[in-house]
Amino acid sequence: MVEQQDNNPRGVVTGIMITLFSVLISTVLFALFFTTAYLKKMPYGRSQALIFQFTSIVIAIGMTQFLSRKIQGNKLSIMQGFLGGWMASLVLAIFICSFYTIFSSITGMQLLPKGAFAKVLMLYSGIGIIISLILAVILKKE
Predict the structure, then answer these.
(1) Tens-place pLDDT, residues 75-110
(2) What's the pTM?
(3) DSSP structural state of residue 44
(4) CA-CA distance, 74 to 78, in Å (whole number)?
(5) CA 52 vs CA 31, 81, 104, 136: distances in Å
């Protein structure tokens, strides 16, 4: 008996690739705006950091859920959207911390204090849970 190979695009690898692609786009945009602000010598305080980070989280989660829905034939369950978006926010935290580390080593500016990775991860996780749930309800389609 010959088993057919499952070429279904709804597999786990597709979900991970969608998440990585969305997070990469969001991180590049974050890095572009952050670097531009640095080069223009614009102030970077808590409010600017919050706006940059919040926008990058929304972009990563929104793009992940939108692409997941489109690839699956215009279907997305609430749980699938929620978990995909939340995972995107967690991966984004890792990418953003990596960007901060690289940026700090190039410029000599200390952007994150020692041990701040856990705080950034918790911040992105908390905001990601809320935004993922809201966008999953909005973008769901059974």
Answers:
(1) 888 888 899 999 999 999 999 999 988 998 888 887
(2) 0.84
(3) -
(4) 13
(5) 10, 23, 17, 22
pLDDT in tens, 40-63: 988 877 888 889 899 999 999 999
Judging by beta carbons within 10 Å of its beta carbon (0-12, 13-18, 19+), is residue 61 exposed, middle or buried? buried
Rounded Cα gap, residues 19 and 63, in angstroms: 8
Residue 133: CB atoms within 10 Å: 16
Question: Can you tell me which residue has the tokens 């990469």?
Answer: 24
Q: How far apart are CA 56 and CA 53, in angstroms?
A: 5
Give the single-character DSSP code of 11.
S
Query: Whole-angstrom Cα distance, residue 24 to residue 18?
Result: 10
